[in-house]
Amino acid sequence: MATIKSAQEKISSPDTVGENSPDHVAARTLKQKNIFARIRRDPWFQIILISFIAFCNPGMYNALTGMGGSGQVDSTVSANANVATHAATAGAALLVVGTLYKYLGPRLSLIIGGWTYALYAGALLNSIRVKNGGPFVIASGALLGLGAAFFWVAQGTIMVTYTNDQTRGRAIGVFWVTFNLGGTIGSLASFGLNYHSKSGTVTDSTYIAYIVIMLFGWALSVMVCSTESLSEKYHGHRIARESKAFNFGNLRSTMIQVLRIVFDWRNLCLYPMFYNANVFYSYQQNDVNGLTFNLRTRSLNGALYWIAQMAGGLLMGLILDLHTLNRRTRAITGWAILFITGMVIWGGGYQFQVWDDRRLALGLKQDIDYKDGSKFLGPMFLYFFYGAYDSFWQAFCYWIMGARSRDPVVNAVVVGAY
To answer: CB under 8 Å to 343, separation ≥6 — which residues?
Structure first.
């Protein structure tokens, strides 16, 4: 336990200050006359706020993509846009956003990134109203990838930095429930709006509803606080004001620091786990759900997938916060859960793929309805447990990152790598 603690204390930035610094003391002694300001600067309020913003932005995006092909008949455009999104996110998150986070802070990062979710939904709406709208969808997907990099680095840094070893699991659970509630509600709304649809594509009103909610969540970003503005309830590192000046000396120091963090051997050990956290979405959404079920059933499955995410994230968060176990034992327990459930769920996925390959060879696709009994139940439960397993994995990744450091500069880089 002492070894883990000392290793964590080494993972800190020269650009941040500890609890006894003048900035930290000033934050503890600051008397807020405005009750709203006191609530807003509370670390747990910021956790809940970023959770709700995620509910509106990536939560609605998840509901849209979870319908298979983003609600389109031809999933090729959506799949290509997915590739553009993840490629842009991978390039920007580590090389750009992780480096610039110290200067931008969470609020500006969210403002820069949040609007791109609404742009993508608008591009999908445009693609069903005009011919040859696919290139615009793919371009907006790439722009969404850049925006998502800013969004997720800010979100992840808030979630793992604004908490401590006793509360981090619950914070992850709260975030995962709230965030995936967006996907659940959005999918159920799509199920209702498209219940009688025979076209294979979602209605215009579905896309418009998503756009409005996404823009509302984006507007809430102005309420987000950086570590130096948090109340005395926050006990982690705060970014020193002088280090936030954007000049050549600071930028050079930041680049060197980023390289040290990226190539730290402990972080190198985490990268395979990070890679596997996002590699399967296109397959699950476009192949398992998108090619197997009809439109209304895809929407229903999307809701079940995000419900499973909510339950799984909360369960894993509570396990990782068990006070009766030390931190090392909690980490090993989380890993064991991932190993056992992964073998079972993905083993079932292999059996599904063998069965589905035979169906596709016969030309059967997008034909299963939720009223089809046992033919529906097996693939539906597989898709449900895919969602649960994703939340197990993601929650564990975030918990490990927070256990490594409570420095926002360090965590922004690691979250960017994630």
So the answer is: none
The residue to which tokens 């056992």 are assigned: 340
Q: Which two tokens stand for residue 68?
A: 């298979």
CB–CB of 378/280 below 8 Å? no
Q: Which amino acid is at 137?
A: V
How many Å from the N-terminal Cα to the C-terminal Cα in the chain?
25
CB contact at 8 A, 217 and 28: no
Phi, psi of 95 (to 5 degrees): -75, -30
Indicate the SS3 state at residue 373.
coil
- What is the phi/psi pair of residue 16, to 5°? -115, 160
Mean pLDDT per 10-residue section of the chain, whose length is 418 residues: 43 54 48 72 89 90 65 60 78 74 87 92 81 78 90 88 83 88 77 66 76 93 82 67 68 83 87 84 81 82 89 91 88 94 93 88 83 85 93 92 80 82
pTM of the model: 0.77
CB of 68 closer than 8 Å to CB of 305? no
Coil vs helix vs strand at 102: helix
